[in-house]
Design a protein that fits this description.
five-stranded antiparallel sheet, Alpha-Beta Plaits, 414 residues, 12 helices, homodimer, Aminopeptidase, 2 domains
């Protein structure tokens, strides 16, 4: 193994320059953000740019049948690489850091090693996975799901996205229908650098998050049907108001999240009344409930109690309830060894570090099915994400990329 | 005065035939409803048809500068007529009874008298007022407001409606820019027959409502601004969720209406969240509060307590509040003598009768400013109105029109 000392650091200017160059592909005018939905011409242009950087570093590039791109730096020995990465697709109103940082941070780590003339013991790979955001093709984290064997390639190819094209058609059109085998051979380990997309690190004054796992997620849509009536002429006792029941449910979701305590979260982010007029008791109310927890038993309790509350409140109001699950993922726990290494690397580099779960989904949760996995978070200013105003201070980006460098070298040394 | 006995009755078949004929002007396919927004070509066609019926009865027809049409049957003496009427414009998805019944019921009363060879002591007039619904031009009850001097004619002419035309332009275009003086000379009395548009008469088993007045109405729009955040990554304690405050407000409006008791009503009929996504704490919530009461002091208390609640709840959540009044009308009390006459006429004709306020606004509340005024309600099936499914049983329509006949004759005899 090549020796590795604390005097090796990534170049923040080079990394910021790459983040800026990638954000220039379909930038959102007047902002720092960009818009590159999966498998569009803009995504192709972003992929081409990132692949050109991988080529500049003489990496071994493989593209698989769902468009995942993995670039590998050879190690002293053969065998499965220690892998990092993330995604470069964005939501329609994306920021420049979400996903991109994990990919370009990995390229920066490899360029740092190359520049220092260091060959790692094991190979080190950096990849980007297709359609992590799910903004064009459902489900999200599609590329990493197929990568680990969670969905058959043919099934993925047949998914139709917004604008009517399939994943398979669009991969072929943009030239990213590769031939690398799927499911992929598991890496030796996987570490993903990502912005927090939440306010915790900034609010509590930490520079680095050592991720313990990903929260379980439950999304349910409820549709309540009552009786539309004139708001002036219908006495209160004769009403069947589905909007009222939706509102009572939203208040209960907050109460329940507080009662169950951290890390339980609960959100009613979407409410639609019909006909939605000032002087009409609505006929229907449709709303969503998003609840998340790292402990699946508590998440199941939250789901059960919310459903019970809504059914009881609807019954009292004389309103009927229909519901459908929009999404349900069990919590994912990351590998204790990788978590320890992230925490230790951050401390060794002099950064404050907090062990925390991720509230959002990431490709790392798919990789966790097949190899020891962890994540490194850096703060998001005001917790803003999926928004052109997304921002992370350069000093935090630098800290995160140096932690990634250190953890990858540690893992590659074994 | 010509004698008038209980053996004189309106012809329900003739009245239903006119209601059906008027509903055939821009009918809503597959329903019993129709759509004739004020001063459109469809409204003109409806006006022309109703005026042709007035002409058939040799009535003296006057059209004023805001398009109100009044047809008068001469009495034994000159002087101000006893007047009835309503409106023939509809909401976009209108029923065939709302408004139309009061106008065609008045024509039916006059034809009944003509057929029986009866000349009333005082003149009897039937009118229809322009833009009662307010669906095209704001405010609603525009024609009757100008009729009683509540708005200057020039101001009314300058009102721009949906599709960009003004009242004055459209009156001229459809040929209903008349010259009868405004404000009009007050009638001797005014009585309006109307469907209830609520469920009370049907639910409680009454045939006739003797209206005591019109509820005061308060409409307020609240806009709450918080902090949009990721629903998975933002701990509950760091949230500023305007949607939650809106929902708590809606629950409070219901509680308050129940606490203040009948006839207080309160409705949150419109809620809009932005960005309205399952996994995003909203940035803003806009919602409306509609509260009504016959007692202005209670209505003022309701307005005050709702505002206080919202300000307190917003403050606790760290959300800012802006509000604007969309409408505010004080309660209107009808004339005790006219109310008594409606009740007595209903009883004399063998109908069950309930004294009640109107929860909706009507032209009668404008006429009440200048002459003794009352209203007659007939039941609305399930309280449905402003909807093609609006329905009143023929026997109830017959009962209401006969009460109108009786009350008009009583008033015209004095």
């Amino acid at each position: 193994m090549t020796s590795f000392g604390p005097d090796i650091h990534i170049s923040i200017n080079r990394l910021l320059a790459r983040l800026a160059a990638l954000a220039e592909i379909n930038p959102i005018e007047g902002t720092a953000g960009c818009s590159r939905l999966a498998l569009t011409d803009h995504d192709k242009a972003g992929r081409d740019l990132v692949v050109s950087w991988m080529r500049d570093l003489d990496l071994d590039i493989s593209i698989d049948g769902v468009g995942n791109v993995v670039a590998t730096m050879a190690g002293e020995i053969d065998g499965p690489p220690v892998m990092c990465g993330s995604h470069i697709d964005t939501v329609p109103t994306g920021g420049r850091y979400d996903g991109n940082l994990g990919v370009l941070g990995g390229i920066e780590v490899i360029e740092t090693l190359r520049t220092a003339g260091i060959t790692p013991h094991r190979p080190i790979a950096v990849g980007f996975f297709t359609d992590e955001e799910g903004a064009r093709f459902q489900p999200d984290m599609l590329g990493s799901l197929v990568y680990v064997g969670g969905m058959a390639l043919e099934e993925a190819h047949d998914i139709t996205g917004i604008w009517g094209k399939t994943v398979g058609e669009e991969l072929e059109r943009i030239g990213y229908l590769g031939t690398a085998p799927l499911p992929a051979a598991p890496p030796a380990a996987y570490v993903e650098l990502h912005i927090e997309q939440g306010p915790v690190l900034e609010t509590e004054g930490f520079t680095i998050g050592a991720l313990t796992g990903v929260q379980g997620i439950s999304w349910t849509e409820f549709t309540l049907t009552g009786q539309s009536n004139h708001a002036g002429t219908t006495p209160m006792a004769l009403r069947h108001d589905p909007g009222l029941v939706a509102c009572r449910a939203a208040a209960f979701v907050r109460e329940l999240a507080l009662e169950l305590g951290h890390p339980q979260v609960g959100t009613v982010g979407r409410i639609e009344l019909d006909p939605n007029l000032v002087n009409v008791v609505p006929a229907t109310a449709t709303f969503t409930v998003d609840v998340r927890n790292t402990d699946n038993s508590v998440l199941l309790e939250a789901e059960r109690r919310i459903t019970e509350f809504i059914e009881r409140a609807a019954d009292e109001e004389g309103v009927s309830v229909a519901s459908r699950k929009l999404a349900r993922f069990d919590p994912v726990a990351f590998d204790p060894t990788v978590i320890d290494k992230v925490e230790a690397a951050a401390k060794a580099l002099g950064h404050s570090v907090k062990r925390m779960p991720s509230g959002a989904g990431h490709d790392a949760q798919m990789l966790a099915r097949v190899c020891p996995t962890g994540m490194i978070f850096v703060p998001s200013h005001k917790g803003i994400s999926h928004n052109p105003a997304e921002h992370t201070d350069p000093s935090d980006i630098e800290a995160g990329a140096n932690v990634l460098l250190s953890v990858l070298m540690e893992l590659a040394a074994q």
